[in-house]
């Protein structure tokens, strides 16, 4: 459990950094950035899987493809669900739609909590239920304020829960499955990076893009790898609620990049930030209780040892 929480927090912080880092990839457009992100992420991800001993998962999926070629259709659909989200993540801040994308990440945890409760029959603690209520208030206010939901928001909120649910169903919810998601999209990345535009000429004209792409690959592998592992170690409800840390950081990054939070939007963000605070408080209290129980057990063990002596 603690490992999953740590991985989820690491992923959210990395995504926040990555959202801000996209500004260093200019003058690349979102399609070129996406293409080079795929090229740069796979080597770092493969290296991490070699270090962690997870390369066998790539081979196991390949054997499943050989045994059941129909399985490749699911992998292609999984790749589409995953990589279109990665493209949108980059497209948003580059095209001034960062807050619309971040609103999707605000709504995403609620959908994941709903999936966890309805599909996996998971229970909410009192703190988690309170966090959900405040999050619902914030998201509902935003929907009421703008009178509609942007397509970026809807896609982020619905595609990711479907992706994680189907990964569990098809038993590809590990780094090997994620590696195949990126590998299968490489032909599209080649088209976007070389056929659709001359990104190599752009890199030659702006040498800083070389190190920017390397850092992009490292941050992507770290953030996405941590996120995928966290989804496997945590219950669906807790995984969804912990995801609230990410949109908070994405909204802050969008503000730093020049987008503004209007006066009416504060009633959206404040309840959601309060929901995150409730989860943090619950986590701290849980750790405190665990330490108390540990100390009590140690005390009882010492008393028992004294009686034996």
Characterise the protein shown here.
The chain crosses the membrane at residues 5-22, 34-51, 71-90, 102-120, 127-143, 149-166, 178-197, 209-229, 236-257, 269-288. This is EamA family transporter RarD. It is found in: Cell membrane. Helix 2 (30-52) packs antiparallel against helix 8 and helix 4 (71-94) packs antiparallel against helix 7 (151-169). This protein has 309 residues and is mainly alpha-helical. The radius of gyration is 21 Å and the shape is globular. It has 14 helices and no strands.
Structure at a glance:
The chain is mainly alpha-helical and 309 residues long.
Give the helix/strand layout:
Elements: H1 2-21, H2 30-52, H3 55-67, H4 71-94, H5 98-118, H6 126-146, H7 151-169, H8 175-184, H9 186-195, H10 199-205, H11 208-233, H12 236-242, H13 245-256, H14 266-308
Helix pairs in contact: 1-11, 1-13, 2-4, 2-8, 2-9, 2-11, 3-8, 4-5, 4-7, 4-8, 5-6, 5-7, 5-12, 5-13, 6-14
